[in-house]
From TrEMBL:
Lineage: Archaea, Methanobacteriati, Methanobacteriota, Stenosarchaea group, Halobacteria
MF annotations from Gene Ontology: 4 iron, 4 sulfur cluster binding; metal ion binding; NADH dehydrogenase activity
Keyword entries, A-Z: 4Fe-4S, Iron, Iron-sulfur, Metal-binding, Oxidoreductase, Repeat
Gene expressing this chain: nuoI
Record EC number: 1.6.5.-
Cross-referenced SUPFAM superfamilies: 4Fe-4S ferredoxins (SSF54862)
This protein's name: NADH dehydrogenase-like complex subunit I
UniProt xrefs under Pfam families: Fer4_7
PROSITE patterns assigned: 4FE4S_FER_1, 4FE4S_FER_2
Length: 153
């Protein structure tokens, strides 16, 4: 009983002070952590089609189709299946995949949540941030500079 009264006192203290914990979404954008894991951003120019992201994905979210010369023909991402574990981002040797802060994507059917490489290239960032810099300091220890032009934004 004492615990209940303490929790109610804490609730009333915050309610009467005027501090708010919610935002009027979608009119006001919520504050999202820089390390939030949202929908993927894909750079076809940087990708070397090594298929490591496809192999490391725990639930077959990523599907890559290559030709005989190992040139990428298709890169498909099933966002509805993704658990946002960030393993694909970690294993990519050239930073071709990054998880954005974008959480605003919907679909009426599961087929609406399948993105190809062109659709992923056009995924907007939630905020105007440098995608690689936002993942520091944890990324700096194991990701190199990569080759190719950075074309995320």
């Amino acid at each position: 009983m004492i615990g209940l009264l303490k929790s109610m006192a804490t609730t009333m203290k915050h309610a009467l002070s005027g501090d708010t914990f919610t935002v009027e979404y979608p009119e006001e954008a919520p504050e999202v952590s820089a390390r939030f894991r949202g929908v993927h951003k894909f750079s076809q120019e940087r990708c070397i089609w090594c298929r490591q992201c496809e192999n490391v994905c725990p639930n077959d979210t990523i599907q890559i189709v290559t030709d005989n010369q190992r040139n990428g023909e298709q890169y498909n991402l099933h966002v509805g299946q993704c658990i946002y574990c960030r393993l694909c981002e970690e294993v990519c040797p050239v930073d071709a995949i990054l998880l954005t802060e974008n959480f605003e994507f919907t679909g009426d059917t599961k087929h609406d949540l399948v993105f190809n490489k062109e659709q992923l290239k056009n995924v907007p960032w939630y905020n105007d941030i440098d995608p690689v810099a936002s993942r520091e300091p944890d990324r700096g220890a194991w990701i190199g500079d990569g080759e190719g032009e950075v074309d995320y934004q």
